[in-house]
Backbone:
């Protein structure tokens, strides 16, 4: 949903923008194109490989529809400063055209977007003009069997976005959570209707051997569900893998933390944009935008307001923006994407 996102961010030269989920860098590249000259882009990703890959693209020159290519003049190449809390920051890079004119800047942070306030504070930035996150995971993460995100190939049951800062992998959840805990996350985070049966089969299977590989878990799931379920449109392991990924990375908790921090980091009239891919995420964003667009959040039966809450946002999208038929045809995963936009009052 690149076109829809860019259109609603209302970008212009000189803006300071945060991309909270750098990923493959497509959104960041498009934003950088529109905020130069003089703009500043801060891109965050929990996956250190994403930051390094984008740095490489900058050094090679990203084709941008300006007079010349944006290229990086790196003052200290590959300089990574490790902080005590396991957060790593990429060295600030000046980006100039071929004549050496400074037209913009990019900063990459190996971190979680839930730490946006601390990241900006570390850069000496008090407020920004726009913040956006795309909660989908990248093709690199899906296609790399060693990451353990996909049930389509065999690999370690990992699912961590950052192996450097996260200790518990999906395998730890599968092998250590109780049957009731597994059933709960499969039901709540995956909306899996056979959650209890799958959890029971997992607990039985791990009595024999530890479940370490993605294909081992898929086999257990297939044994647990009825035959008719195996002929459904989506793979029977889809919801369980979603639940494990969310639990491993605490995605919903991070989203809630991020939303509050993002409002505080935005300048007045600043834009906040969220692209979500499943109902759990979208519900959190929708309810947050709704609550922050109201002056009072007291229960309707209260005779007068006692909460002292004041609206901080203006909701721009009353209903979420969805992908166009053309994009869905080119990228079927976009069919579940929902974009919501709000503006700070």
Residues:
């Amino acid at each position: 949903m690149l076109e829809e996102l860019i259109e609603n961010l209302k970008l212009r030269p000189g803006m300071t923008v945060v991309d909270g989920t750098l990923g493959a860098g497509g959104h960041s590249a498009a934003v950088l194109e529109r905020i130069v000259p003089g703009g500043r882009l801060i891109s965050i990703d929990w996956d250190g490989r994403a930051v390094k890959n984008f740095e490489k693209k900058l050094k090679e020159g990203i084709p941008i529809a300006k007079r010349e290519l944006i290229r990086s003049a790196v003052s200290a190449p590959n300089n990574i400063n490790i902080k005590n809390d396991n957060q790593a920051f990429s060295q600030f890079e000046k980006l100039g055209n071929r004549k050496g004119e400074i037209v913009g800047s990019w900063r990459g942070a190996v971190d979680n977007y839930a730490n946006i306030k601390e990241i900006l504070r570390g850069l000496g930035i008090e407020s920004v003009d726009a913040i956006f996150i795309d909660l989908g995971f990248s093709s690199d993460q899906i296609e790399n069997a060693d990451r353990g995100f996909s049930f389509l190939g065999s690999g370690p049951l990992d699912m961590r976005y950052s192996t450097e800062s996260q200790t518990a992998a999906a395998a730890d959840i599968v092998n250590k959570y109780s049957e009731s805990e597994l059933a709960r996350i499969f039901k709540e985070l995956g909306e899996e209707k056979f959650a209890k049966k799958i959890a029971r089969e997992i607990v039985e299977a791990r009595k024999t051997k530890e479940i370490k590989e993605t294909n081992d878990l898929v086999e257990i799931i297939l044994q647990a569900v009825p035959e008719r379920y195996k002929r459904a449109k989506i793979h029977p392991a889809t919801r369980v893998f979603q639940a494990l990924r969310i639990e491993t990375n605490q995605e919903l908790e991070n989203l809630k933390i991020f939303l509050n921090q993002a409002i505080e980091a935005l300048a007045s009239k600043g834009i906040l944009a969220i692209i979500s891919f499943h109902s759990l995420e979208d519900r959190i964003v929708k309810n947050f935008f709704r609550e922050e667009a109201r002056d009072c959040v007291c229960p309707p039966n209260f005779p007068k307001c006692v909460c002292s809450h004041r609206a901080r946002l203006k909701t721009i999208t009353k209903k979420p923006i969805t992908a166009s038929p053309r994009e869905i045809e080119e990228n079927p995963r976009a069919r579940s994407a929902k974009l919501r936009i709000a503006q700070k009052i």
Summary: The first helix runs from residue 2 to 9.
